[in-house]
Amino acid sequence: xxxxxTGRAAAQDVPAWAAIALAAAGxxxxxxxxxxxxxxxxxxxxxxxxxxxxxELDGLGALYTLLATGVGLAVFVYAASYLPAHLAYQxxxxxxxxxxxxxxxxxxVSMAGLATAQDLIALFVFWDLTAVASYFLIAYDxxxxxxxxxxxxxLLVTGISAVLLLIGALLLYAEYGTFSVPELFxxxxxxxxxxxxxxxxxxxxxxxxxxxPLHFWLPRAMTxxxxxxAYLHSAAMVAAGxxxxxxLYPLIEPSExxxxxxxxxxxxxxxxxxxxxxxxxxxxxxxxxxxFSQYGYVVFLYGLGxxxxxxxxxxxxxxxxxxxxxxxxxxxxxxxSTGGSRRLSEVGGLARELPLLAAASAAAVAAIVALPxxxxxxxxxxxxxxxxxxxxxxxxxxVAAAGLTFAYLGRFWAAIFLGxxxxxxxxxxxxxxxxxxxxxxxxxxxxxxxxxxxxxAAAGESSVRxxxxxxxxxxxxxxxxxxxALGAWAIGLTLLAVPALWRRAAGAVAGAGAAAxxxxxxxxxxxxxxxxxxxxxxxxxxxxxARVAAVLVPAGALVLVGFIAxxxxxxxxxGEIGSRDAGLVLMLALACAAAVAAxxxxxxxxxxxxxxxxxxxxAGVYAFFGxxxxxxxxxxxxxxxxxLVFGVLALVPAKVLRREAGVQTRxxxxxxxxxxxxxxxxFAFVLAxxxxxxxxxxxxxAAEHVALAPDAHAKDVVxxxxxxxxxxxxxxxxxxxxxxxxxxxxxxRRGRLW
Amino acid sequence: MSxxxxxxxxxxxxxxxxxxxxxxxxxxxxxxxGFAAGAIAALAILLQYVAFGREETERRLPIRLLxxxxxxxxxxxxxxxxxxxxxxxxxxxxxxGAGEEAIHLGTLELIGAFAFDVTIFVLVVGAALGIIHAIAxxxxxxxxxxx
Lengths: 754, 147
Hints:
The complex is a heterodimer of chains A (754) and B (147). With 754 residues, chain A is an all-alpha fold. Chain A has 6 domains: 244 residues, no CATH class; 246 residues, no CATH class; 37 residues; 57 residues, no CATH class; 83 residues; 55 residues, no CATH class. Chain A contains 30 helices and 2 strands. A two-stranded antiparallel ribbon of chain A has the order 1-2. In chain A, a hairpin with a 4-residue loop joins β1 and β2. The longest helix of chain A is centred in the N-terminal third of the chain and has 34 residues. Chain A is elongated. With 147 residues, chain B is mostly helical. Chain B has one domain. The longest helix of chain B is centred in the C-terminal third of the chain and has 34 residues. Chains A and B meet through α25, α29 and α30 of A and α2, α4 and α5 of B.
């Protein structure tokens, strides 16, 4: 059946090809729109909340949309041959594949929305959408516990910090009355509110970009399939953090404090990520630490402030995204080719077997360590220039950072492609072409940097709101940037050549991080919360009576507080009872009797009947009180419920019912339960009496409803209220009925409706 | 089950359903609404379960799809509630507007709110029937296990 199987294989490829086509179309469309000078779309969203959907393809928007679709294209092509092998290796059916592409596309679209959104609420929504897509993609191997743990960690860290973004947005709205980003830039004035909101937004951005001390989720997220790591956790989602910094830069820039904070966090991230990356043996782990170290560069640049630094930051993002995703794809290809080796110590000498991969990843490594003839050289040139402008200490940090990067990435490449040879298989072209294409991009941009430079300059302009330019070119002279680059390479080569220099110290840093790092804190807090929730749960649901008491006692206490706090003069008077009220009084007396009687029976069946009696008597009260609609529903529903309770009792073995009926309440419970009952009953009585004693207001809501009923074409006011005036309440209530059905069916029939 | 109850159940089914329909249709002029009508109809079906047992009832009455219908009705109710927003009006605005003339079928006025009431009717009947069915099915297992 060869025809059939190829046919099925072709059908399985449809989602992959659809995703590839979508990415390609998105990339071309963005490129075309950008070449036409950008543009903006504005749609009303929720006018009553002052929300508009405004999307604008400015420099930042174009940059990140092009990255999301362009790198997305390369990754989707790669995934098309990676995923079938991945699923086959884990013995999962091919039907798991469409979900993968669907989530990747969801991510791509939300990233494009995030890049172009000009409204804080829209930003927040897309921000969370990327986190949701990331959650499901990290946990794509959902049968593996580490994947689920990592996915939850990424979601919690980026999701909880996202709430800070929302709080920041609301603070800004409260102060300046708009969610629109351009309007905010016009209205915002330096001050405590702006600093606070800027700080909250910055924390959200830094968590997303995995900056110290919220970096620990990123290395864990490497349990995701390689295409996800290459796409979300190097090029796109982690870049969303610095995108937000760039987008809302004018809100952050006025505060020196925030800028200094960014410098400190950026520099710490560079150092921590770089030093730990030196010690990693797992390829993807090394790249993960490298990734947040590299985004540390970008955060550091934004912290330096000014147009030059903003342009440099944008340039760096492009250069890093292209190169780093190529390296992730390289790591995946090496694992694929060597039959599952993930560690640097397990592979070596692959340059002979995989020359194309070696060349492409060499270009990518060269780009990140800023060798000439790659786009990275210019990225570092701008980085050094911005640092120099700020002072010698910033320049020193920059050189040290570049040297560190050189060392660990040199180690990465050399360990895979040089040294003693390991067995490797040839790889399909679709795994190699994306890496080669990304490698070609970084080299091409190293020869002809103008397109990247103009895009970065435009992105910088949208951040700082003033004209900016990226002057990149090769200069064969002894200007400071060139000397700094030479210095960085010298440091890197020294570190690479003499590992004894750093091995002990770096190992100690990594060990300290593992022993007392923020990840331990995260785990501890999570365990603590779990335990707290268990305790509260145990307290509340020890038995049914405790659960009822947990509702009644606080409610009673609240009523008591209200009773003490409000003046009671004029309330609680006994009205007149005339002969017309005889029926009502009789019914109320019966209701009291039934309520007292309900405390007596010990058999479940009898108890149900007594309670049903109480319900019927109450229906009678409604009828005499002049509410026939309520009385009708009460009678019908009471009957239905009583019969259903009988049915449920039939599900309980008779033995259990007999035993439970014979249980005697012992000890303190004997007094506690009646006490709780009497107290809460008293409070309810006081509350109802007080409410009924109030004189009716001149024009009550009820009178309003009666007056409006003819407009709703209704002669029966109650029906008009239920279906029309308070229709939303009714909608909510019937939803509860539907949810009840789901609950019963789920518990009794494992979800089978019939 | 005694012959009396079975006869009663058989004879009463149509009248009770008729009452339910009347309560539903006349809800806008008189006591009752979709919720009450749904509960009455559900009682009519429950009576059949009590009198004839589950299998016999489910063979005789075409009620298989009603529980699923509850969810369809839920979606319909949401649609009816949200539809006016497309035209830029508030949630749950029904035609005809205040003061406009409604279409009459005899003494029955066709108004938008009635459609909403009908979805609630179906939802209540369907949900109640789904719960009745689930309990009845499980009760059979319990009986089979402990004779």
